[in-house]
Amino acid sequence: MQSTNLQKDKLELIKKIIHTEDQSTIEFLKDILNDDNSEYQLTNEQKSIVEDATAKYYSGEQSSFTWEEIKRNARKINF
User: Fold this and answer.
1) pTM here?
2) How is 7-69 classified by DSSP, letter by letter?
3) Which of 15, 23, 67 is CA-nearest to residue 75?
4) Which residues contact 79 (CB under 8 A, 6 or more apart)?
5) Is residue 42 a contact partner of residue 50, using CB atoms and an 8 Å limit?
6) For 8-61, how does the pLDDT look when each residue is reduced to its tens digit (9 = 90+)?
7) Where are the domains of the chain?
8) Residue 36's Cα: distance from chain center in Å?
9) What is the Cα–Cα distance from 45 to 62, expressed in whole angstroms?
C-alpha cells in the first residue's frame, strides 16, 4: 500500500496537470512519462554547455546559487 504522502503528492500533481494550459508543459510531461529508457542521454551540444558552465564556475567567472536561492527561484515558476 502506498503512503499517504505519496498519494497526496500524486493528487496534487494531477490537479496541476488538469489546470495546465501550456501545451509545451503537457508535451514535456508526456515525454517523461512515456520514456521507456530510464537513462537520459545528453547530446554533444548539451555536454559542451555543461562543460563550459563547469569551467566558468571553477574559474570564478560564473557565480552559483545556494540551495535556498534555487528553491526560492523554482517556486516563482508558474505552470
Assistant:
1) 0.40
2) HHHHHHHHHHHHH---HHHHHHHHHHHH---SS----HHHHHHHHHHHHHHHHTSS----HHH
3) 67
4) 16, 20, 22, 25
5) yes
6) 999 999 999 999 999 999 988 888 888 766 567 888 999 999 999 889 988 988
7) 1-34, 43-79
8) 18
9) 20
Which residue type sits at 65?
Answer: F
CA torsion through residues 56, 70, 39, 24, sign: negative
Closest of 20, 40, 8, 19 to residue 50, by C-alpha: 40
Cell of residue 13, nine digits:
500533481
Looking at per-residue pLDDT, the higher value among 8 and 63 belongs to 8
Q: Cell 514535456 appears where?
A: 28
